[in-house]
Structure formats: C-alpha cells, structure tokens
Amino acid sequence: MWAGRCWVLGRVSEPDEMFDRPLESLNWEARVSVRASPNLCMKPFAQNDAPGRQASKMEVHMAASAVQPVRFMGLDMHKHYAMVGAVNKEQEVLLRPRKFTWPDFDRWSKQHIGPGDVIVIEASGNAWHVYDQLTARGATVYVANPLLVKWIGSAPVKTDPHDTLKLAKLLAAGMLPTVWVPPAPVRALRTLIGQRQRWIKQRTQARNRLQGLLQDHNLLPPEGDLFAPEQRPWWLALDLAAAERLLVAQDLLALDQLAPLADQVETAIEMQSTSEPWVSEIPFLIQQTGIGLLTAMTLLAAIGDISRFEHPNQLVGYAGLGARVHASGETHNTGGITKQGRRELRTAMVEAAWSAVTHNAFWKAKFARYDRRLGNGKAIVAIARQMLVSVWYLWHNRTVDRHTDALAIAHKLWTWAESGGKAMRHGLSCSHFVRFQLDQLGIGQELTELHYGSHVYRLPPAGSVASLPAAA
Q1: 53 lies in which domain range?
Q2: How are the residues of the chain apportioned to helix, strand and coil, as percentages rounded to the nearest 5?
Q3: What φ, ψ does residue 71 adopt, rounded to 5°?
Q4: Which residues contact 327 (CB under 8 A, 6 or more apart)?
Q5: pLDDT value of residue 8
Q6: Do 254 and 304 fall within a single domain?
C-alpha cells in the first residue's frame, strides 16, 4: 500500500506522524471552516447544477480542499473496537488503518479529530452515539448506507483494513450513498415506538401459544374476551398435562406483566405527542381515515422530516411499498413489493389500510375492486400504498383532505385529548384542545358542540384558543 505525504505547518510530514501529534499542534484554527447543516444528505452521484441549488456538504468540502487540505476518514465500527483510516482528495493514504478499542478511540479522537475532518461511519447499532461524539468535536460526519456501500465497493478481499480505506476513498471520491441522520427528538421517539412494538409482539406470541393449545386439544373457549382477567380461572382449570399447565400459567403471567409495560410506553408516546416538533404535525396525519394517534406517531418517528421527500413515490419507496420492476430491452416484469425500507412504516400503513377499508366507504369500495382482481393480500397493500401517497400530500403541503368530515376529525381529536390527561394537554380542557387543533387545520368553525360517548360537550368559538400553553 502506497502512503502519500501531506504538508503540515510548512513542512513535509509522514502520514502517520500527522495523526500521532496532538490536535492543537496542527494549527486547526487556521483552517477554513467547511461545516454545513448536518441534516443535508450528501448526494452520491453527479447533480444537475440547477440555478439556486444549495451546495451539498461534500461540494463545500471539495471546494475548500482546493485551498486547504481535508482529511477523509473511514471508520469501520465493530462491537468492541473501531478501525480508522484516512486519505486525502487525491486518494493518497494519510493514515494506514489502525485498530482502537472504544475507550482508546475516545481518547485518540479528542486529540486528533477536529474541524476540517470529514468522516464516514456505517449505519449500525452505535452509529448515532459515535455521530454525536464526532460532530461535537467539529468534524463533519456522514452515515453510509451499508447495502449500497457493499454494492459500490464490492471486492474479492474483505478485511477490516480494506473496508476502512474503501469507505474513506468512496467518501473522498464523492461516491458515498448516505442515510438521513435523524435529530435527537426523532431518535427518542423511534426508541419508544420500537419498545412498544417489542412488547406488543411478545404479547401476541403469548396469545398465539394459548390459542394454539386450545386448537391442539379441540377445546371450545368461553364467550367474550378470551384473555380478560375474569377468564383466568377457566384457563387454570383446564384438564391438561402437567407440562402444558405450566406453560399456560406462564403465558398468562406474561400477559399480565406485558400489559402494564406496553401501557407505560404508550403513555410516554402520548405525552410526546403534544410537544414540538410533533404537535403541529399530528393534525395533518390523523385526518386520514384509519390513522389514530399511535399510528400517526409511528409515521412521524419513521419519516421524521417529510420535506426530505420531494415526491410521494420517494416516500412509497422508503416504506418498501413500491413494486419490484425488471425492465430490460423488450422485457418488462413487475413483482411484489420491495420490502426495502422502514418496516414499522410499512406495517403501520397496512394496519391503517385495514381500518380504512372497514370504516370508510371510499376505501371500502376501492378495496372491493382490487380484491376481485388481485386477491385479498395484494389489494390491502395497494390501499396502503395509495393511503401513504395521500399522507404525503396532506402532510407535505399542510392541507386538508377535500373529503374531510370536520365532525369525524373532531371526534379523533377528542380521543387524542383524552388519551394522556390534562398534563399532556398542558392544562387545557379537552374542548379547548380540540378547538385549537381544528383551528390549526382551518376546519370546523361552525361546530359548537360535540357528542362524544354519552355526553355532549360545548366547543369554544373558533379562534378563541390562540396557542397551547408551554409545557410545565
């Protein structure tokens, strides 16, 4: 491997020597600041130089490197260690790959990483922690798409040093496909959504095991909710083998323990729903049939910033709901959906589609037409895809569906208002909270009362609630 040489403080320095010296001795303060907004994604291939187009972070760095040197670093991360290597714009090796344990990397990076360094890391379990750590030290960090990096940089030799330099060289060449780096509120919400899904999955598995046991023994369950607390004596009195009685008791105990855990997470999600940046986005989502508060929060966590999708088809592809296509020459074949995207987004839209085709006449009629031609499974996916396109238009353009029923939306808003209690509403009554959200959508000015359950509630006049109180 040929190692280049780089100029530091007016003299020629061996590449590795440059990285062994403290950061302060390299006079980084004199370098050109080339940092830009961390939310801009680097474009991996050539761009059209349209008038008024804002330069990407990588273009800024490449322009600055014509005057001041920029180090392009690859960081190959593993569970217990990281491999670091660096090149310059001419692909000359500045740092031969070095292996660090994570504590050693933390100490080394404090001394040797600073403004002017451009670093790429692969998306992995600890990527966001490392991203925050390095950006806090002034570096510009990209998170690479691991699937596309393997496709672009495939090589017959695969070792940690090779992977590290491969990342650095792709970064220096401007050929690195990156992923969007979610800000802290999005990451926090994704953590809650993921935890809730894990509890729900475990609860579903326990229920399926219990139902499977009934089927194995041809047992007829009692009427009502099979897993309600009042059914516990029936389950425990079943005439089963000792091993099966133990499994029944354990699964029932798991259900009793999982329910409050899931409820705690749902409460935390509901509390976040009336905080920025979510509170101003949710009304545009829950106006869509089939989308309630938890589904809306799942969409917000998965998508984050709707403005990064310039067309609804991009959002469909991000959800993995687009069709597979093979078109070459005179051949044009389509297959099932790609399923390459955020699974929770895809699952949430399919669940919303089932609700929509059950309760909404428009979607129900569409589903019936698709069902006759495509079958049940493909038909519901087609509905989910079209609903996601509708979500894009409503959310991206911050508009109201022309078919929106203000009274139906008011009921959904009241359910949202009641879900987290007065603390979630920042002290507002449900009536005032609903009125504020209706005003945000610009609908329901004529509504003066709302029938909810067995009660009738008076709504304040339109425009009477200027804003939500600040959170305590």
Answers
A1: 6-172
A2: 50, 15, 35
A3: -95, 130
A4: 333
A5: 35
A6: no
